[in-house]
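hey all, quick one before standup. I had two proteins in the batch that finished overnight and I want to keep them in one place so we stop losing track of which output belongs to which input. First protein below, input sequence then structure tokens straight from the run.
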Amino acid sequence: MKTQVISFSGGRTSAYLVNLFKSDPNAHFVFMDTGAEHPATYQFIKDIVKHWAIDLVCLRVVVNPKMNEGGTYKIIGLNELKQDFEPWIEMVKKYGSPYYDLPFCTARMKTELFEKYCNNKFGKGNFERWIGIRYDEPKRLPIEILKALSLPVHKKAVKQKQGFRYLAEITEFEKDDVLDWWEKQPFDLAITEHLGNCVFCIKKGLNKVALAVKDEPEQFVKWVEVTEGDQVRSEGRKYNHHRMYRERLHGSDVAEIYKEHSRDELYNSLRSSKRYESGSCSESCEAMV
């Protein structure tokens, strides 16, 4: 029997998937740490381990500074989970900054080390990857799963990769179901969606980034130092700058553009435009898609 490896992103849906497997002796739980998650996310992860008594493997990328040579990973303890931006610092020194339409940060800090770890631990082809993609996220599901669930197959749907499994296969829980379930638990993730994943994730819309800036200004100052400083490699880049966000903006540009907008104005705008609904943007930065 193949080992079932649950890729835990640190979000509520992903954590619900962990809960479904917590009593399975053939399950293995892995979290890839970018060093840029919200402190509340790290606390949520620690609470899960405490309350559910799971063995969670936490990985961090070890960047090889030599060009054309891949990096590796290290296993860290729960007490080492913190927002220190170290993986980001090393990544941008070597590769420069990612940008929203080429988010190689996910590959460098999550996908590659997940695959290396699992291949080393279980052997290539001896495990299945479980990802927390829900029934109400059809745009993120492959053709085979859509057909099996009698959901419409959209134009951009792709074939299912071998060894990839999804939450939607085992439950029809939608976003509201997950949120309702968490309300009944003795602990929860103590942040709203716009602060999830890397707090200032490049996949988020500009208004979500701006709202995160309003909520966490001190964290944003550190983020700008990491992603816009002189240590960010620009040699060989098509765009000789560190502009990661939509419309080729710096994070500092986003803050400047939205500085006259109040926190409540931004939040209410997101709510009214349904940007918090399923499928509005990436709700979790999965290691594999």
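OK second protein, same deal, sequence then tokens:
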Amino acid sequence: MSNDTLSDDIALRIGLAARTLPDADPARLIRVLADTVGLPPTATTLDTLRVKDLKQAADGELADLDADVLKSILAILKGETGQTVAPAPPIEPYEEGDMPGSLRVACASNGGDELDGHFGAARHFLVYQVSPQEVRLIGVREIAESGTVEDKNGQRAALIADCQVLYVASIGGPAAAKVVKADIHPIKDAAGGSARDRMVALQRILGEKAPPWLAKAMGQSPEERVRFERSEDAA
């Protein structure tokens, strides 16, 4: 190990990158960096890193992580995420009961109106109320985590426990299991884009065209859901 000291900038990068780990443990990341670029890491040595390096280093310390999480870690370590985060859209007024037969949908986002978040690394969830007639953004739920959180995926699932559907750019198997256990239907949309545009698209499959699982979440009666299934079979 070199006698050089770790710069404040690199220390900040490591701390932010560690937050994307399931256990938010910087020690895991330090072990990987020690094996790949040596300690202390510098901006120059971090620039040489690849996703493959992170996955294989330190006897596969991070091998279980989703590729999108590793890409996020790499971008943070290289200082490529320093741009200003776009603010979330303004929240629209909503009272319980305003939109009968509607769904509550969470979208994992890293800023603005974008549906671009990995479930385990997104900055916040945009929460929409969606009915066949309208879409309202009713909440922006920030994700505050620390190294003391033992079940990061469970914490995030609990944050959106009142939602019936979750849109994410990506999600790993264990995290998806937590979401499903919370009775939330996850939908992976790797293409991303405007969250509101996705909600408008969702409107088109609501009502009479809603699949049974979606109709159930909207509160339609069993008779209505059976009627839909029969009409689909006859089509």
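Flagging for whoever picks this up: The chain has two domains: 8-77, 103-204. Strands lie at 103-109, 124-130, 135-142, 165-168, 185-188.
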